[in-house]
Amino acid sequence: MKRRRIVTALVLAWSMLLGGVAVAGELEDFLRGAAAAEFSGQQVVVTFTDGETAAGFYEVTQSGGFTMLEADSGMAMMGEGRVSSADGGGEGHLRVADWSAWRLSDRYSLGSVDRTIRLGRPASLVTIFEDGLLRTRMAFDNETGAPMLSEVYDGSGALFRIAMVTGFSAEVVTSRMGDTGNLDEYTMLMPAPMFRLPESAGGYWRADTYQGPDLSLHAFYTDGLFSFSVFELDSRAKAGPLEDGAEVEIDDRRYRRVIDPGGVWIFWRAPDNSYLLVGDLPPDHLDEVLPDLPHPGRPNVFKRIWRGLFG
Amino acid sequence: MSHPGELLSAFLDGELVAGERRQVMSHLAECAECRAELADLDAARSAVRSLPMLDPPLELSAFEVPVAPRPAVGLTWARAGAAAAAAVVAVAVGLAAFGSDPATPAVDLGSVIDQHAARVSVDPGLTSVRLVSVVNQP
């Protein structure tokens, strides 16, 4: 009898383990499918944070592992570690030399997968929970895997960002896709050792570190669903419009914040360096992340004198 | 929901309560006319934000403030020399400690977001949403 109970418990535990793996795998399949989907259309993205709203409208074309976005302010094409962008300020071509493998944090779990209709097309509505809290709802087109809708909720359960595809075609006009260009034209971001920024922050792990063209250090953090980069800059670096961003207080420390439709920019000065964070993480995640990074502060007067006299 | 009209502006300014916001967003998903109107509003706001800050004309800012005459103080050459030296040191230290350094480089936000986007682009996910910052940098 006792042996039978043990066997039953083992079978149950094994099936639960397999079930968990299957659920995580299904969520990963949706995300991989969305990245690889071939489609074109329009999308609107709106972010709400502390009474601020940022909205953007984009033409989207996704094909061959590349995504092209066009807006009034400029265009960008990205994929396979490369980005080409053009706006009023000029063009840029960058690529990362190397990166670590993607994985999804185990704090996320798949809630349900329901059938729905988006823009007249059959789709799957997926809910994703984070430690029991509804974090995001996404709708994926059944035929192409394209992401038709995503809603991200903050820690209080309020809608924080919504992205909707408002015009959709499974046909991709490949001539609309720009030329991905000669690899030689791209400035290469080389991996760099990074000792000062922590290996993890607020549940995100430091996946890669790079040295930028201006020799600034760049750390990329992710939890598989959201991500952000932290740039370590000269302590006196001028951050233009970010210095006039909204002043926000997190954990009794002050930062400058600017939001755009798809993300948040945070700038602060610490005694030895300035830091810039940019990413798509929700505000409650940001509250957890920033205390784990170098804190804002001013250098003491002797350090300022020394720097002023000798650089 | 009928066309939100003036609510669109409040929507962009983040002044709507959650229920209204959801209604407006649902309406936007279905109504191309309102999406176009929202795009126009957003473009107008962006244009206004991009206007340069102007300094007031000199004649408006240069009011003369009467100053009471100060009693003359006799200085010896030694005192004057010490005061001048102290002033030079104070200015040098002040500039070093608090002055701005014109050689300090400005952060190239375009390059920063491109670096982030290049790395983001290799991970699966909602690429078309995660990368909108590239075309909407501050």
Explain the layout of strands and helices.
The complex is a heterodimer of chains A (311) and B (138).
Chain A: H1 2-36, E1 39-49, E2 52-63, E3 66-71, E4 74-79, E5 82-87, E6 90-96, E7 108-118, E8 121-130, E9 133-141, E10 147-153, E11 159-169, E12 187-191, E13 200-201, E14 204-211, E15 217-222, E16 227-233, E17 246-250, E18 253-260, E19 263-269, E20 274-279, H2 283-289, H3 301-310
Parallel strand pairs in A: 6-12
Antiparallel strand pairs in A: 1-2, 1-11, 2-3, 3-4, 4-5, 5-6, 7-8, 8-9, 9-10, 10-11, 12-14, 13-14, 14-15, 15-16, 16-20, 17-18, 18-19, 19-20
Chain B: H1 7-12, H2 18-30, H3 32-49, H4 58-61, H5 77-98, H6 109-120, H7 127-130
Please tell me about this protein's structure.
- The complex is a heterodimer of chains A (about 300) and B (about 140).
- Chain A has helices spanning about 1-35, 285-290, 300-310, and strands at about 40-50, 50-65, 65-70, 75-80, 80-85, 90-95, 110-120, 120-130, 135-140, 145-155, 160-170, 185-190, 200, 205-210, 215-220, 225-235, 245-250, 255-260, 265-270, 275-280.
- Chain A has about 300 residues and is α+β, with helices and mostly antiparallel strands.
- In chain A, a hairpin with a 2-residue loop joins strand 17 and strand 18 (about 255-260).
- Chain B is mainly α and about 140 residues long.
- Chain B has helices at about 5-10, 20-30, 30-50, 60, 75-100, 110-120, 125-130.
- Classes of the chains: A alpha+beta (about 300), B mainly alpha (about 140).
- At the A-B interface, helix 1, strand 1, strand 2, strand 3 and strand 4 of A face helix 2, helix 3, helix 5, helix 6 and helix 7 of B.
